[in-house]
Amino acid sequence: MNYKLLVYVFTIMLCIFSLSGINFEKFIKSNRVWETRILVVVLSLVLAYLLTNFIFEFLSVSKLT
User: Fold this and answer.
1) Which alpha helices (DSSP H) does 1-65 contain, by range?
2) Minimal CA–CA distance to 28: which of 37, 41, 20?
3) Rg (alpha carbons) of the chain, rounded to whole number
């Protein structure tokens, strides 16, 4: 099984969970629900991509030493 895909799914769920703790109402105009949801999804995907690449890079570097 492709472990990188599983790590991506796990980190996406982790990022969505962590971003749900941020109050975006202070930053977004009122009555902009869809834009806020899209922002949370995009931020989750970006953070999950960075976190997954960090994890795999860390594992590859730690195997060499």
Assistant:
1) 3-19, 33-64
2) 37
3) 15
3-state secondary structure of 65: coil
Place of tokens 């999950």: 48
For residue range 4-61, list pLDDT tens digits in order.
899 999 999 999 999 989 888 788 888 888 888 898 999 999 999 999 999 999 999 9
Q: Which residues contact 34 (CB under 8 A, 6 or more apart)?
A: none
Distance CA 30, CA 48 (A): 28
pTM of the model: 0.82
